[in-house]
Amino acid sequence: MGSTAKPVIELLDTARHDRSQFSCGVEALDRYLQSQAGQDARRRVAAPYVLLEPPSTTVIGFYTLSNTSVQSAELPPPLVKKLPRYPTLPATLLGRLAVDAKQRGKAFGTLLLLDALRRCLRSETASLAIIVDAKDDMAASFYERHEFYRLPDQPNRLFKPMAEVEKLFVDSTP
């Protein structure tokens, strides 16, 4: 069943992308992709991106991006020391990220995460960091393996400073 085409990640197109078979094992994420993601995109509440293996239009993974803010008091003091003294700072929320259970073990989660980070870096909207709300300890561990830091008072909320995202891609270019 393997496709030789390189996986692609693109904005959700509800008319073209088949979301009906997606199952990551977390009902809330499955339901979100199947019934809410299109509405969120149309209402500009979130930008859902989907992973496909052409020529198939079946979604095998997805993530969402949206603007958010973070209270400076929530961030670690060493980071806040270097920032303007604003009570609220701009950030980007990586709201959801999931891979179909049948596609696990193929590094698609990392592929989706790196794509999200790259898009955030290219955005013209100011953002201090990428914020994620991990659903559970397993999700939090995934983000920690990708060098996200837990917010001191909210262990399931993690962040990665945009300066580190920039280094990630600058250092990886030949």
TrEMBL record:
| The entry's keywords | Acyltransferase, Repressor, Toxin-antitoxin system, Transferase
The N-acetyltransferase domain sits at 70-148
Any one GO MF term held by the record is: acyltransferase activity, transferring groups other than amino-acyl groups
Pfam families, per database record: Acetyltransf_1 (PF00583)
Q: Does the keyword Repressor apply?
A: yes
Source species, domain of life: Bacteria
InterPro entries to which the protein is assigned, alphabetical: Acyl_CoA_acyltransferase, GNAT_dom
Q: Report which reactions are catalysed by this protein.
A: glycyl-tRNA(Gly) + acetyl-CoA = N-acetylglycyl-tRNA(Gly) + CoA + H(+)
Q: What is this protein called?
A: Acetyltransferase (GNAT) family protein
Transmembrane helix in keyword set = no
Taxonomy, top ranks, is: Bacteria, Pseudomonadati, Pseudomonadota, Alphaproteobacteria, Hyphomicrobiales
